Amino acid sequence: MSILYTLGLFIITAIAEIVGCYLPYLWLKKSASAWVLLPSAFSLALFAWLLSLHPIAAGRVYAAYGGVYVSVAILWLWSVDGIRPHLWDFVGVTVTLVGMGIIMFAPK
Known about the structure:
Elements: H1 3-29, H2 37-51, H3 58-79, H4 87-105
Helix pairs in contact: 1-2, 1-3, 3-4
């Protein structure tokens, strides 16, 4: 798999997971309608399916995906929650992306 394809797939997967978890949060904490649980369930099922598209061992995919998830979550914090990340958020994102790159793309 190419690096861009892998990263793109991880980003879409992270968005699916975050949406799947954010909608129940809105229901539980922000008084959103229980109807948000339907798209939430769909989004989490999509998340699981997207993770299955990688042709390598599941454990390696899950470990590497975590780095991309952290990055997308920080972008979500900024764009959806309206909270500007600080320097240490960006340092953490850099560390997790380096770890993801080592796990996914180092010679095996």
